[in-house]
Amino acid sequence: MKIKISPSILSADLGCLANEIRKVEEGGADYLHIDVIDGVFAPNISFGPPLIKSIRKYSALVFDVHLMIVDPERYLDEFVEAGSDIITVHIEALKDPSRIISRIRGAGAKPSISLKPATSLSTVKEFLDEIDMLLVMTVDPGFSGQSFKRDILPKIREARRMIDQLNREIDLQVDGGINKESAPLVVEAGANVLVAASAIFGAPDVEKAIREMRESCSP
Ligand code: DX5
Ligand code: ZN
């Protein structure tokens, strides 16, 4: 299975963001992970649709937008219009998951669901067949630079098993503390999309960081 790498701009130098994005794009990234945090669903405040709209013209990467906000449905159209390709919403923030999933798809983006480390996979099971990606958080949402929670590995394995029981291609993304040490562990457990902020944007050589992460998880 091809591993996709999605650098998170939460650790980028926002003063020269277009340049930072160009570096990961030229360095072999597959997606660009954009963490939207509202200070309510998770601590920290980051970016919104205007930022996505302004960087859209500088990059052809798949925009992988991770919404850590309450009531994501309220701003859904703005996020799609701004240029999001994949939209991840948190199961903990949803009243009617099927409705928002079909609204995301209807608006022309790929729907994805995420769950916090403490949330059980049973909460997302019935919606798996409706989504294109499942994001299993490997740290509590909010900040980059946290340590990978190794005890999430069995959950990743179980998520992969649940996905493989369905006859559809569904990506399994992991997010939080992913670096060249944890990447092979999560890939072995079944993840195929790796988000990384500090391990890529915090590295002196972004291209080398992406290459080494890819190499670390190839058998
Ligand atoms: C955390 C965000 C992550 C974060 C990852 O809430 O969802 O995407 O940027 O940062 P690292 O890779 O540094 O753990
Ligand atoms: Zn994220």
TrEMBL record:
GO MF terms held by the record: D-ribulose-phosphate 3-epimerase activity; metal ion binding
InterPro entries reported in the protein's UniProt record: Aldolase_TIM, Ribul_P_3_epim, Ribul_P_3_epim-like, RibuloseP-bd_barrel
Entry coiled-coil feature ranges: none
Enzyme category, top tier: isomerase
Annotated active site: 35 (proton acceptor), 175 (proton donor)
Pathway field: Carbohydrate degradation
A Pfam match: Ribul_P_3_epim
Binding sites annotated in the UniProt record for substrate: 8, 66, 142-145, 175-177, 197-198
Residues noted as binding a divalent metal cation in the record, renumbered to the chain: 33, 35, 66, 175
Entry's Gene Ontology BP terms: pentose catabolic process; pentose-phosphate shunt
Catalysis: reaction(s): D-ribulose 5-phosphate = D-xylulose 5-phosphate
Cofactor or coenzyme needed: Zn(2+); Mn(2+); Co(2+); Fe(2+)
EC code: 5.1.3.1
Note describing how the cofactor binds: Binds 1 divalent metal cation per subunit.
Gene Ontology cellular-component terms listed: cytoplasm
Record's keyword terms, sorted: Carbohydrate metabolism, Cobalt, Isomerase, Manganese, Metal-binding, Zinc
Similarity comment: family membership: Belongs to the ribulose-phosphate 3-epimerase family.
PANTHER family to which the protein is assigned, alphabetical: RIBULOSE-5-PHOSPHATE-3-EPIMERASE
Function text: Catalyzes the reversible epimerization of D-ribulose 5-phosphate to D-xylulose 5-phosphate.
The protein's name: Ribulose-phosphate 3-epimerase
Originating organism: Candidatus Hakubella thermalkaliphila
The organism's taxonomic lineage, starting at the top: Bacteria, Bacillati, Actinomycetota, Actinomycetota incertae sedis, Candidatus Hakubellales
